[in-house]
Amino acid sequence: MCGIVGVVGKPAKDIILSGLTNLEYRGYDSAGIYLNDLNGHEYLTKAVGRISNLKEKLTPDEEGLVGIGHTRWATHGKPTVDNAHPHFDETKRFYLVHNGVIENYAELKEKYLQGVKFHSDTDTEVVVQLIGKIARDKNLDGFSAFKEALKLVKGSYAFLLVDNTEPDHVFIAKNKSPMMLGIGDGFNIIASDAISVLDQTKTFVDLQDGDVGDITKDSYVIETIDGKKVDREPHVLNIDPNAASKGTYEFYMLKEIDEQPGVMRHISQDYLDDNNSTKVDPKIAAAVAESDRIYILAAGTSYRAGLVGKHLFEKYADIPVEVGLASEFGYHFPKLSKKPFFIFLTQSGETADSRVVLKQVNERHLPSLTMTNVEGSTLSREATYTMLLKAGPEIAVASTKAYTAQIAVQAVLAKAVGEKKNIQIAKDFDLKHQLALAAVGMQQLVDGKEKIDELAKKYLANTRNAFYIGRGIDYAVALEGALKLKEVSYIQTEGFAAAELKHGTIALIEKGTPVIALINDPATADLTRGNIREVESRGANVMVFAAKEFAQVGDDVVLPEIDYYLSPLLTIVPAQLLAYYASKNKGLDVDKPRNLAKSVTVE
Ligand code: M6R
Predict the structure, then answer these.
(1) Homologous superfamily of domain range 3-240
(2) Which of 57, 112, 158, 446 has a CA positioned 20 to 30 A from the CA of residue 540?
(3) What is the C-alpha separation between 369 and 385, in angstroms, rounded?
């Protein structure tokens, strides 16, 4: 949520605009930029809506050797030009951009900023006004005033600050919001996400919570708020910059759906050896094997991947699993088992709701693992162990390849734990072969995308609502299929355990209501067919995605062969495509659905 890019030591405008464009996927509703040419000229420009609106407002002579830019996703105050960042203090000495939420902004305003004239409704402006006030009252230089202010601020933040009395510096601070420092030759760059500035540098410093920094074109000093120096070594990030580009695709979402066969192969190569044994850190397998219950915590799509993980861990690792929505769990901890092990599923590794739980897990000194797509992300650093999803950068707001990667990596861990416990079915579980089947099956399904486009055109073009139904593991996929469809097409869609419909929701089925039925579960395939007949007889337009062995003439998608426990890897593909085409055919911005952000760093 929100994106920040700062540059010092190089013409900053285009780098910032391109970086912000690369961060568009995080979601935003306004944008702004501050530039200083180090020759007495400074420029502040802001616009509501897209970055293209900001570009239109910028004149060619507005350039700077130092600059900070921001895309804002409104939390405090509406998306207006005044509320857009950068914000400035009363004397227009300090300019600040901020990603995060200041919890005590009202208190700070009341206590320290009486009589100060504000121009926005934001929590961020309170901070920059506070910095200005402290600098004036105590006659401090910018960096000292910044650190003094930070001692009073409570909340999450990634801040970039410019003091126009020493404009060749950018001051930074990080707490609970992502921020990386990129090291260049004669310049430095700061961004919410390394991917956004990979065309400038591949050398990065991972900043940690509590870090504040003074960045110039050829130096960086990182310290604590109390002024204690900390060492933060740069490292080279091994990411292919093309992985984050759209190539010939119109939307990232389709590119990422299409990439799933490759992701399965990548996971297989990295986590399984040629003899089908798992290559998982033995400490992780041992820690999970010692536990008497696994708690999987996540949000959104990751939570739904966790529901599939429950089936995998219970089957192959023989450990009971509880799956929780992080936002609920964090404030209502259940009675835990005697030897719990916590798994955090998170594509971004930054989700605030999940962090709340992890914090408490750490306070209780309990073991934890983050499965994430982002190396060095906050949840990865804060958990005991990390397993990477290896899905490559996921840019579209709607998560697709990270979901299937989460399922595959959970399968790897379930097998590793089962092997550690000497469980025969885990040893016999030919995951290498199954992931190969998944890759081939996914390819077959994405190759058949035109058929799904036709289904979207036929059944979803004019509907206001839709349902997914399934039993067993298909129920978990029904929940994810419904989330995908609703978030990108705005069709109100619910996922149901197929038999539950008749206990109330079937009242909503009328002529033309789309119902997508998923059939992979050997125990209930016939029963789900019965549920299909129930909705069909009430006028529903039913689309059936069925495993080859249960498929019947007339089914819309026949799912290629795979182990039942990994069937979600295939079942979800036509569901993702259906969501994609429903959105695209309506002319919507598939990659950036309204009101949504890629990385949800507020609770
Ligand atoms: O980065 P995370 O996996 O922790 O994010 C969790 C959810 O915010 C995310 O899955 C969200 O539901 C996506 N929009 C789903 O497509």
Answers:
(1) Aminohydrolase, N-terminal nucleophile (Ntn) domain (3.60.20.10)
(2) 446
(3) 4
